[in-house]
Write a structure and sequence with these properties.
Number of domains: 2
Low-confidence stretches: none
CATH class of the largest domain: Mainly Alpha
Oligomer: single chain
Number of strands: 0
Largest sheet: none
């Protein structure tokens, strides 16, 4: 099973993402990243010989984490994507649309993270950590959205552009998202050992 999943990941990335989706949809990072989430399923099936809801939910955590992780970085480099003809969401949609997408995927990510509490079930260390980290991530996503909304009222910021403050918030969210995922998975690993 793990070999089949690995093959699916390779073909999905090389063909599905690189050849088909990357230059055709503004949701490219959502679907293209699926190959990057496959190691959770591959490892689980290699170790256990089966798939259960646990690795599927871990897959979902990474799946929903990718857009609010990557799109803030793509905001900063949107002009490079435009020049390259790659329809990354921040390169082809307005700032408010991008911010709404980031907030929506943030809530889906937090929901997937909290679903582990019920499905596995997880103990108190993971549960408290997931709630605190989820709230912190959502606050940062909403701060970015609120800043971008404020930009729309600023006559010095074009409707299709971002203020320096919003660009700074986007990069804070990007950097924070890296720590978020690392700590979530650290908590998954530590939780069974904490009484």
């Amino acid at each position: 099973m793990s070999g089949l999943l690995a093959l699916l990941a390779i073909v999905g990335y090389a063909v599905g993402y690189t050849m088909v989706l990357k230059r055709r949809t503004d949701q490219n990072i959502v679907w293209g990243g699926a190959a990057g989430y496959m190691p959770v399923l591959i490892a689980w099936s290699a170790i256990t010989g089966s798939l259960t809801w646990t690795p599927v939910v871990l897959f979902a955590v990474i799946f929903f984490w990718t857009p609010p992780h990557y799109w803030p970085l793509a905001i900063k480099y949107r002009q490079d994507y435009q020049a390259a003809g790659i329809p990354m969401l921040p390169a082809v949609r307005g700032p408010l649309s991008v911010a709404r997408h980031i907030v929506a995927y943030t809530w889906l990510m937090v929901a997937a993270t909290l679903a582990l509490i019920v499905i596995v079930p997880m103990g108190w260390i993971y549960s408290i950590g997931a709630v605190v980290l989820g709230v912190a991530f959502a606050v940062q996503a909403y701060r970015l959205w609120a800043g971008i909304r404020s930009d729309r009222r600023d006559p010095n910021v074009a409707d299709d552009d971002y203020s320096e403050a919003s660009l700074k918030r986007a990069m804070q969210l990007f950097h924070g998202s890296i720590s978020y995922l690392a700590v979530i998975f650290l908590l998954v690993g530590l939780d069974p050992f904490v009484v």
